[in-house]
Each structure stands twice: as C-alpha cells, then as structure tokens.
Amino acid sequence: MHHRRLLSAVSILGLATSTALAALQIVPGGTWTASNGDHLNAHGAGVIRVNSTFYLIGEDKSQGSSFLAVNCYSSVDLVQWKYEGALLSRTGTSGDLGPNRIIERPKVIYNDQTRKYVMWMHVDSSNYGDAKVGVATSDTVCGGKYEYKGSFRPLGMESRDMGLFKDDDGKAYLLTEDRKNGLRINPLSPDYLSISGSTSTHLFPTAIESPALLKLSSSGTGRYYIFGSHLTGWDPNDNVYATATSLSGPWSDWQIFADKGSNTYASQTTFVLDYGGGNVMYMGDRWKSKNLQTSSYIWLPLEISGTKVTMNNRGSWVPNAGTGGGTWAASPAETSYEGEAQGKYAGGAKEVSCSKCSGGKAAGYIGGTGGTNGSVTISGIQSNGGEGAVTTLQIRYVNGDTGPRYAAVSVNGGSPQKVAFEGTAGEVGVSSVVVRGLRQGSGNTIVVSGWEGGGWGPDVDRVVVPVQ
Ligand SMILES: *[C@@H]1O[C@H](CO)[C@@H](O)[C@H](O)[C@H]1NC(C)=O
Ligand SMILES: *[C@@H]1O[C@H](CO)[C@@H](O)[C@H](O)[C@H]1NC(C)=O
Fold this sequence. Notes:
The protein has 468 residues and is mainly beta. It is built from four helices and 34 strands. The strands form nine sheets. Strands 1-32-29-34-24 form a five-stranded mixed sheet. The chain has a five-stranded antiparallel sheet with strand order 25-28-33-30-31. Strands 2-3-4-5 form a four-stranded antiparallel sheet, with no helix packed on it. Strand 14 (209-218) and strand 15 form a beta hairpin. It starts with a helix and ends with a strand.
C-alpha cells in the first residue's frame, strides 16, 4: 500500500527528486553517525519540532550511566542529524548536575505564553534514591545552555522515568512513574514550571515506565495513546499502549503493539513522534547496559487505526519526512557487496576470517597506525537513483573494541566522510551513512579506508546499497 502511494508521488514530482528522497533510510539498531562524526548520543530522547526542523534531545552516554550532558541534534528529514551542542552539562563538584548523578529522559516543550522552551528530566542520585524531576528553561530550543531551575518530587511522590506532553489546547502534562502507586498523568501550571494543583489527571495503577503520549486528531475528535514499558531494568520487554478520548479516562486495557515475545524488537519506548502527513514514528532505545555508549535507536513506523496500534520490525525504511515528504515507505530492494569477495585491497588491508559474517569472511586491516592506511575498494555498485543520487548505505561490520572505530567512506572519488562504528561485542553490527554522488548504472565505486588519525577501522563484512 505504501509502495503504491510512493509511486504516485514519483510520477508527480519526477524521478530524480523523489528517488533521491526515497533513498534516505532509517536503519534501526545501527551506529548512526551525526554531523560531528560520532554515533548519535541522545538516548532516552524526545523530539520537538520548531518550524520545519526536528530537534532530538537526549542523554549523552559516552561515559556510562552518570550524567555528562543533555545533547541536541537537528534534522529536517529524520535521517541526517546535525550536532547542535549540549543543553546541560555536568557542573562543579555537587548538586543535581554534579558528578555521579543521574539525569535521564530529558523532554522539551515550548510555552507559548512565556515564550520559553521548558525541559523536564528525571533527576536522581546514583542509587536512584532521590527519585525527583528537574526543570530547566531556555529562550532558544538548542541555541545554548538551558537555565537549570531545580528539582522536586511531583505531588510529593517518587518519580523515576518520565515523559512530557503538550495538548492542542496549550495545556501540558508530566507523565511520571511513581514506583509505589503506578503511572501518573500530572497537569502542569500555565508556565509549565510546576505541577498544577494537588491531584493527578489520571493514575494508572500499573507498573509502567518510560511513558510517551500521543494525540491524534481526526474529524474533529481527538484520541490519546499512551505507550510505555514494563519494569525490567535495562532489559527489554513487550512494551504496551492504552488509549482514551480524554486524558482523565476511561483508558483501555494495556495491550502490546509489536510482535509478541519480540521484546518490542529489543527496545524500550522513549518517545512517539507524529511528524505529519499521517506518519507516526515509535522511538525506542536498545540499551546495551555493559557499554551504554553503543546503545542504539529503534525507530519504526507505527500503524494506527482507531484504537488499534501495531508495529512491524524492519531492517531499514524510508520516513519521507521534510520537504516533498509524504507517507513513509518500506525500503527499496537492496544489493549486497561482500567486502572480501568484491573488494580490492590496498595499504595492507586484507581478508580476515569472521565467523558471524556472511561468507565467514570480512575485509580487515582497514586504516591502521604509524602511517599505514589499509583500504578496500568496491566497484561495480549498481544504483538506479539517477545521477548524483543521495542514498543511505549500510555497512555491515565487526568491531571487537569497547570504543568506537572510524573509517573514511568515499563514493566515486568524492571527498571522504567520517563514519563511526561502535563496538559490536562479537556480533555483526551495521552502520548507516548517507552518501551523495552515486551515478546511474553500475559504475559506482566505494572506498572504505582509515580516517585521519583514527587508527584501525572496522572489519567490513559487506556494503548494502538500495538499488533505487
Ligand atoms: C521559527 O520561525 C519563526 C517565525 O519565522 C522565527 O521567529 C523563529 O526564530 C523560528 N525558530 C527557530 C528555532 O528557528
Ligand atoms: C586514508 O586514505 C583516505 C583516502 O583514501 C584518506 O581520506 C584518509 O585521510 C587516509 N587516512 C589516513 C589515516 O591517512
């Protein structure tokens, strides 16, 4: 069905434009290199859209679980992310934002009356004993540091995972997991800086964390959908949703929306984004508790019809957000090129065995130290995206290190771009990268080599290229 809509868009817009857009893919679960050359570091994130830009705001986990920073990235297409900077950073020797503190699930909404961007976050001690929320504000969404206002327990209750929701009427709500009683929807004051009154709008007497709330309006009536996870620590479970036509209820029973037993495709809800055009995207974290920095993003389209919500797993998909966007689509057909079998080696790179790689082999010794610069060149790559196509490549790889490795990826002799490859802990991982300048036909060449001063690159199992 989605393919059919895409095809009609193709005939209206003309082939070159629409195929270029159609090739921009989200690759759930992979290393996702941002404009700064590193894996997106915005875990437990939320998104706020300002004008036509999406701002992704989440936790920096590059040094483990303790608070380091709340980062912001911007994008117009949900695929290419520009690092905007840290909105909050660890400060001093004590206090909420000091060393060995927990700051999780930052979420930002805009207050039309005060004209402030308001951030709420979970604030805790390292043993999760404080169980509070914190508030910070800024005049710009991601133009600089937020002013931290302090922390408290909402309605005097423990508060751990939280979410934030701004309704169409300008009223906003804190979603908070109160360990003793359940999940609460608490109304915010008109300036969004505190809880209004002394009672919750609704209390779900169920142990649900990582809440996210969505409202869809159709034919004048709105319906709310709340999503969340059961409490299983860093490990994923089958996340659930409930729906209602009023925030105060009655709410439906909790039901699963991903395949039963899949543990929500090994992820935990953090946000649900309505990005327009009838597109709603689930945003989850695939936490890697032993190496949090390598945690990845499971973003998938939600299919919502009345009270029914479902979500299928996909290796990649096309969100079609932004200019000329439309309805999301399944990925086009893809072709794989084996690093070791179809590649040409230079600079000391060579075939290595890799038990989990396709064919049991990979192209190894990419990059290097002390002046070596191993590279693998893969030629004969087919693209039907027209001249100069912009396409997401998937590089399947292995990195046995704890920290990231980097490579320079160059297409048809163009300037190389820095791509990150997070540690894969013995598995084959995927790193996605948007490249420009593919040619129509089979005359495309991709070179993967060492990034300047970047040491060894990943072992390249194969490169996956959308055909169109
Ligand atoms: C959004 O657009 C308005 C009106 O043009 C402008 O005043 C505002 O600065 C823009 N916001 C951002 C974050 O660019
Ligand atoms: C390796 O070669 C590529 C070009 O193929 C270049 O972009 C990169 O900077 C080189 N890396 C090192 C470490 O010299």
